């Protein structure tokens, strides 16, 4: 028993001594210079304990371990030399005091979350050799107003510039073939996403991001207050207007066929016009416009009805207008002339007359009779009298028939003034006979009286 105990104690002593030797050797290999940089024997920067301020990574460093400077608010600027060929993730994560960065490092990519939440970062200079921007690499960098991506960049990761509220414009290099989801989400002041000519995957129109053929709208910058959707657009992509709160109205061109799910989620669009060509409108969460304008029997109408949204029909039929003559509708005659506006009265009120104070023509309608109206006129607003009926192109007067409440029919007929006035128009012939007899009697009386007077004188 004693021999086993001694053996166990000896083994434990050997293990402790080996651990001490390993620790001493490790500390001997990780050297810390006077500026607080701790570098291991492989050239990897593993720790920083310096005072902060403006720092320059030592030239003997070839790699920077992940999170080395994380949450160090004392660093104001950093310069990374060309000797550095690799970096871990989140190297400067939450360095809220960091204002400027210069990267000359020969790194193939900027790792994920490299400058996440560096809220004071405003100046960034990237080496031309960088080929990719990692996911959330600049997320929450609210002071970043501009950045120049090198032409070598081929991919931009998910949410790479998420919530960069100070960013107003960004240019996508011609070599970029991949832009991750939400890469520019939360950029509330972003008004322009431009794409370099010759890009094989993307294009831009009116500051918006499209696929190369400009048939799919990928992203409208959240800072835009107005937008003109390209007339070649066939698909409004998911999330394309997400968060566009400054945009109040939009007109979709007739080329649009599909509106994907949540294309308008969180947007400020309250008025939208959707063409009849749009045959698919997917669900839009957290978006309910005040009105949708579109066409009857269209998907726009169906979507509006299904979601309780006011719909304005662009192809609605106009109601027929009524004339001012006793509620009757004006009509066109067979020869294309307009019906006359002759003034007609039921004996108590004038109907159809427009007057500037002059007296109007009153005609009493006798039920069951037809009354010709010759030369009836209305006064226009200038006081000039116009004839009640108009001649058509053939010269034939047009007749307008108006039914009164008792069933009487009144006809108005236009006449041109005769060149030679006619006499006796409408006088009974018996009048002439009576007049002739009377004249004959007078003549006989005068003749007889003359004869008598002559005899007396003799």
Mind explaining what this structure looks like?
This protein is 14% helix and 23% strand. It has 458 residues and is of the alpha/beta class. The protein has helices at 2-29, 299-306, 429-457; strands at residues 31-32, 37-39, 44-48, 53-56, 63-64, 75-80, 86-87, 100-103, 109-110, 123-125, 132-133, 155-156, 169-172, 178-179, 192-195, 202-205, 208-211, 216-219, 235-236, 249-251, 258-259, 271-273, 280-281, 291-294, 310-313, 344-345, 350-351, 370-374, 377-379, 385-387, 399-403, 409-413. Among the domains are: 27-163, Leucine-rich repeat, LRR (right-handed beta-alpha superhelix), CATH 3.80.10; 191-315; 361-378 and 399-413, no CATH class. The protein is built from three helices and 32 strands. The strands form nine sheets. Strands 16-17-18-19-21-23 form a six-stranded mixed sheet, with helices on one face. A five-stranded mixed sheet has the order 1-2-3-5-7. A four-stranded parallel sheet has the order 4-6-8-10, with no helix packed on it. Strand 26 (344-345) and strand 27 form a beta hairpin.
